[in-house]
């Protein structure tokens, strides 16, 4: 199954996030921080006192990197080199020695071997990639059996003023670099084709229930 609702291309994403990179933290940190905290808490609950290999898909400027337990060995990937440059600066300035690598990579074509990671986290990624299903397939491929995939993402409103606003913004998705319209069915339909995965949690997050935490387990 392929996600057909492709409103952005790689070129759109790279162009948009080259523009966003210098102001990304200032503009987006406040509204997205609760989701990053929730995602990091889910990962840290997995880690507890054991060392885990963690893949951060769409690491961006690295805002969540300081939130992870220090015994999580982190590999971060992102398509945007300007965003990665800011993440590398954050790692150096905050001495985040548990971050092992920050690499430019396409989330739809991960170069890692099957079952390379104990957990995968993808904060605010599915609305950015051209094909969400292909990205989910890749995350499921590289996580070990028994491991978890933690997603934090905006799930579009089905009706009301928010749905109208998202529809209006959706016509500007290429310039924004993400899709404001993103129905749960994109994830739900994909999950229905994957008997090797179980939905552990789906929970709305502040502010204003704009974002959703999704936890999946590889069986």
Secondary-structure map:
Blueprint: H1 10-20, H2 24-47, E1 52-57, E2 72-78, H3 81-93, E3 99-104, E4 117-123, H4 132-142, E5 143-154, H5 160-170, H6 173-176, H7 185-192, E6 197-205, E7 211-218
Parallel strand pairs: 1-2, 1-4, 2-3, 4-5
Antiparallel strand pairs: 5-7, 6-7
Describe this structure in words.
This protein has 219 residues and is an alpha/beta fold. It is built from seven helices and seven strands. It has a single domain, classed as Vaccinia Virus protein VP39 (Rossmann fold, 3-Layer(aba) Sandwich), CATH 3.40.50.150. The protein has helices at residues 10-20, 24-47, 81-93, 132-142, 160-170, 173-176, 185-192, and strands at residues 52-57, 72-78, 99-104, 117-123, 143-154, 197-205, 211-218. The chain starts with 9 loop residues before the first helix and ends with a strand.
Q: Class by helix and strand content?
A: alpha/beta
CATH architectural type: 3-Layer(aba) Sandwich
Low-confidence stretches: 168-177
As a percent range, the share of helical residues equals 25-40%
Number of helices: 7
Strand order of the largest sheet: 3-2-1-4-5-7-6
User: What do we call the CATH topology?
Assistant: Rossmann fold
Strand content: 25-35%
Mean pLDDT metric: 86
Largest sheet: 7 strands, mixed
Instruction: Estimate the global geometry from the Cα principal axes.
Output: globular
How far from one another are the termini? 20 Å
Give me the Rg, rounded: 16 Å
Please name the fourth-level CATH homologous superfamily: Vaccinia Virus protein VP39
The strand count comes to 7
Just give the CATH class: Alpha Beta
- The number of domains is 1
Series of secondary-structure elements, N-terminal to C-terminal: HHEEHEEHEHHHEE
């Amino acid at each position: 199954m392929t996600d057909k609702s492709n409103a952005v291309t790689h070129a759109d994403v790279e162009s948009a996030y080259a523009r966003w990179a210098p102001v990304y933290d200032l503009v987006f940190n406040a509204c997205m921080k609760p989701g990053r905290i929730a995602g990091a808490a889910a990962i840290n609950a997995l880690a507890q006192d054991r060392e885990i290999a963690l893949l951060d898909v769409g690491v961006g400027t690295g805002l969540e990197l300081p939130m992870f337990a220090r015994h999580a060995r982190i590999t971060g990937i992102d398509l945007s080199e300007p965003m990665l440059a800011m993440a590398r600066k954050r790692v150096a300035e905050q001495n985040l020695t548990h971050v092992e690598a920050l690499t430019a990579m396409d989330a739809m074509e991960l170069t890692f071997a099957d079952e390379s990671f104990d957990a995968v986290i993808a904060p605010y990624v599915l609305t950015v990639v051209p094909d969400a299903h292909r990205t989910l397939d890749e995350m499921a491929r590289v996580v070990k059996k028994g491991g978890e995939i933690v997603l934090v993402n905006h799930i579009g409103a089905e009706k009301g003023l928010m749905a109208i606003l998202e529809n209006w913004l959706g016509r500007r998705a290429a310039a924004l670099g993400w899709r404001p319209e993103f129905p749960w069915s994109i994830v739900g339909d994909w999950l229905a084709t994957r008997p090797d995965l179980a939905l552990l949690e789906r929970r709305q997050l502040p502010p204003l229930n704009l974002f959703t935490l999704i936890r999946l387990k590889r069986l």
